UniProtKB/TrEMBL annotation:
It comes from the Bacteria. This is Membrane protein. Signal peptide: none annotated. The chain crosses the membrane at residues 6-27, 39-60, 72-93, 100-121, 127-151. GO terms for molecular function: transmembrane transporter activity. InterPro entries: ECF_substrate-spec-like. Pfam families: ECF-ribofla_trS (PF07155). Keywords: Membrane, Transmembrane, Transmembrane helix. It comes from Kurthia zopfii. The lineage of its organism: Bacteria, Bacillati, Bacillota, Bacilli, Bacillales.
Length: 163
């Protein structure tokens, strides 16, 4: 895929993540939304750094629409975590380990990503937030898995293939 198509596709997935940020999932801590689903889908089409950027932009949009409830620095850290989650997932997709990529995003985003709150804020925050984030991650993964085959078919018609 040439550079222009890569940038346009990255912008498309980032824009979809921003749109998803407005569809909130009503569980604690209050910021989970469908922003991750487009980022997870982007793992199948974009190189890891570009998919990671789409994921980070999606989280920043979600936290912005929620008013940065955990403060801007914390949400920047979470956006960096999201970039790592999606970037590694895209790398695994590129290596042909699609099932492992889905397991990775589910566990890393739902269980490992909130782990720093255990030490930064308190163990109680981690215990309160992790189940909701795991549930929100599961919803985003299911949405991504449902959308991916349809999007793959449409993008293939326009000459864009999965990695």
């Amino acid at each position: 895929m040439n550079k222009t198509k890569t940038l346009v596709l990255t912008a498309l997935f980032a824009a979809l993540a921003v749109i998803g940020s407005f569809i909130k999932i009503p569980i604690p801590p209050g910021t989970p939304a469908l922003d991750a689903a487009p980022a997870f889908v982007s793992m199948a089409f974009l190189p890891a750094p570009f998919a990671a950027a789409a994921g980070a932009i999606g989280h920043i949009a979600t936290s912005f629409t929620a008013g940065f409830p955990l403060t801007l620095p914390i949400h920047i850290m979470i956006a960096a975590e999201m970039a790592i989650v999606v970037g590694v997932g895209a790398y695994l997709f590129k290596k042909g380990k699609k099932a492992l990529a889905w397991v990775w995003v589910a566990i890393s985003n739902g269980v490992l990503a909130p782990l720093p709150f255990y030490w930064i804020i308190s163990p109680a925050v981690y215990v309160a937030v992790a189940p909701g984030l795991l549930m929100a991650t599961g919803i985003n993964v299911v949405v991504a898995c449902i959308v991916l085959p349809f999007l793959q078919k449409k993008l293939a018609q326009s000459g864009i293939k999965m990695i």
